[in-house]
Design goal:
It is a single chain. The protein has 204 residues and is an alpha/beta fold. It has a single domain (5-196), classed as Alpha-Beta Complex (Spore Coat Polysaccharide Biosynthesis Protein SpsA, Chain A), CATH 3.90.550. Helices cover 37% and strands 17% of the residues. The chain has a 7-stranded mixed sheet, with helices on both faces. A hairpin with a 5-residue loop joins strand 5 and strand 6 (140-145). The longest helix is centred in the N-terminal third of the chain and has 17 residues, at 28-44.
Length: 204
């Protein structure tokens, strides 16, 4: 199989604009620092040699993102709309550029590693159409697809514990063969942070 493209969705690392649920307990500055640490760790843990696109928000943040995480193959502003709209637009553009398959990730999962990418690629090569990395909060930390499948991003109750459930049902109705990776934690709030780092506590 040809080399996949990683689509890394990020927000500019500005206090008060990232990890807002976590910030309720630890403050804007600390939440932003945690976000930066997660994003930078993931950036270092991408498969060597795979093209990587950073799709960022807000649209005026390109210079900031390039300075923060240099070396991506493409920097593109995210489209307008909800998360589904933004994922669909990124998918359409990436496949139009000729990729064989696309891996969508964010900066929330502290344990997404090279073995997970390799396993997802193996499953795609075995005639699966979509591979999900289930998150413990009911969402997913990775989605790998072998074609543009906009139906996977439409009608999803984003930011709820039913994201993966709905996505799998939509895939089934669309006739897509799916597979699941190991369940992992996403860090979105203090509870999930403590599950990953049991000694974590709010900053005074």
């Amino acid at each position: 199989m040809a080399v996949p493209t990683v689509i890394y969705l990020l927000k500019a690392p500005n206090p008060g604009q990232v990890k807002t649920r976590l910030a309720v307990d630890v403050g804007d500055e600390e939440a932003c620092a945690i976000y930066c640490a997660l994003a930078e760790r993931q950036y270092r843990a991408l498969p060597p040699g795979w093209p990587m696109e950073i799709h960022f928000a807000p649209p005026e943040a390109e210079d900031q993102i390039r300075l923060w995480l240099p070396g991506a193959n493409l920097y593109a502003p995210q489209s307008d709309g909800d998360l589904g709209d933004r994922l669909a637009a990124a998918s359409a553009a990436t496949f139009k550029r000729g990729t064989c398959c696309a891996f969508f990730i964010g900066a929330d999962c502290p344990d997404l590693n090279l073995e997970d990418f390799a396993e997802a690629l193996r499953l795609l090569s075995q005639d699966h159409d979509a591979v999900f990395g289930p998150a413990r909060d009911g969402g997913y930390y990775l989605l790998a697809v072998n074609r543009h499948a906009p139906e996977l991003f439409s009608g999803i109750p984003w930011s709820t514990d039913r994201v993966l459930e709905h996505s799998l049902e939509i895939a089934r109705k669309a006739g897509l063969k799916t597979a699941l990776l190991e369940e992992k934690e996403d860090i979105d709030d203090l509870a999930s942070l403590r599950r990953c780092l049991p000694t974590a506590s709010p900053v005074p």
